[in-house]
Amino acid sequence: MSLAFDESAAPILEVREVAVHFSGLIAIASMSFAVPEGEIVSLIGPNGAGKTTAFNVITGFLKPTGGKVLFRGTDLTRLSSNRIAGLGVVRTFQRTSIFAGCTVFDNVLTGMHRQGRAETWGALLRLASVRAETERMRAAVAEILAFVGLSHRADELAGNLAYGEQRLLGIAIALAADPKLLLLDEPAAGLNPSETEAFMGVVQRIRDRGVTILLVEHDMRMVMTISDRVVVLNHGRIIAEGPPEVIRANPDVIQAYLGQGVKHAKG
Ligand SMILES: Nc1ncnc2c1ncn2[C@@H]1O[C@H](COP(=O)(O)OP(=O)(O)OP(=O)(O)O)[C@@H](O)[C@H]1O
């Protein structure tokens, strides 16, 4: 893990002066930050700071009141969430959306044509070599399941998985959509310490495979261990930005958030 921020790395994502107002309430006042390609960047802050709102803007679920979001130079704020997913900006949700009545394998297979991949799927079905293509996709699903450590559960109904396994399945479904930038919304919520540990390893390995990660997470140990860079939001404004060891020592951050968070993480 590279703890130092490489200023020369090209940003895959640039959030420029994004503002979000909800009829009088300012959820995000003005937010600008960049996510360098190939890094894990965490967006942290107290409850209500604007983290989920920022995710919703980046993924096209919410149009900002002002500002832009550039993904490899393309302005995402003009595009539908489906188009954005099709470009490779893929998110997971706080509540994992799985098909409980389908097998783990089929859930991941479905992930290949969810999230904006419908056109590709349709085109594939028209190919004469559908069978070869199906085999290729099944091999890809098997590879993803092995990657997240769920191969042994492939034929199980997703609804029968333990909670921690369902979170891993959520990640596997997102990986099936071939993300370039993966947004993880509180992936460790509700996990026990050993599950969190395993999850941290998975997230780092996803980064090591070349997928850039933007993480919203309350578990400070996870954030401080795996992030290359941390962006701190408070009341809709960025109050600090930098590598974990700098953020950890920033008095404004400690005041706003970390004091409580670190205590919580250690307790
Ligand atoms: N659709 C909405 N309509 C009105 N206000 C909203 C809406 N969505 C969010 N807000 C408000 O915007 C602010 C930011 O909320 P947001 O959910 O982005 O915070 P957060 O940092 O993700 O919090 P948490 O850590 O609790 O998930 C809050 O004051 C929230 O109540």
Query: What integer is the average pLDDT?
Result: 87
Q: Give the DSSP E fraction (strand runs of 2 or more residues).
A: 15-25%
CATH topology of the largest domain: Rossmann fold
Amino- and carboxy-terminal Cα gap: 26 Å
**Low-pLDDT residue spans:** 1-6, 261-267
Q: CATH superfamily of the largest domain, please?
A: P-loop containing nucleotide triphosphate hydrolases
Name of the top-level CATH class of the largest domain: Alpha Beta
Give Rg in angstroms.
Answer: 19 Å
Apparent shape: globular
Number of domains: 2
Got a strand count? 10
Strand order of the largest sheet: 6-7-8-3-9-10
Q: What is the CATH architecture assignment of the largest domain?
A: 3-Layer(aba) Sandwich
Derived from helix and strand composition plus strand pairing, the structural class reads: alpha/beta
Taking the sheet with the most strands, its summary is: 6 strands, mixed
The percentage helix is 40-55%
Q: What are the distinct ligands in this entry?
A: adenosine-5'-triphosphate
Listing every helix as H and every strand as E from the N terminus to the C terminus, the arrangement reads EEEHEEHEHHHHEHEHEEHH
What is the count of helical runs?
10
Give a short overview.
Keywords: ATP-binding, Nucleotide-binding, Plasmid, Transport. With 267 residues, the chain is α/β, with parallel strands linked by helices. The chain folds into 2 domains: 169 residues, P-loop containing nucleotide triphosphate hydrolases (Rossmann fold); 82 residues, P-loop containing nucleotide triphosphate hydrolases (Rossmann fold).
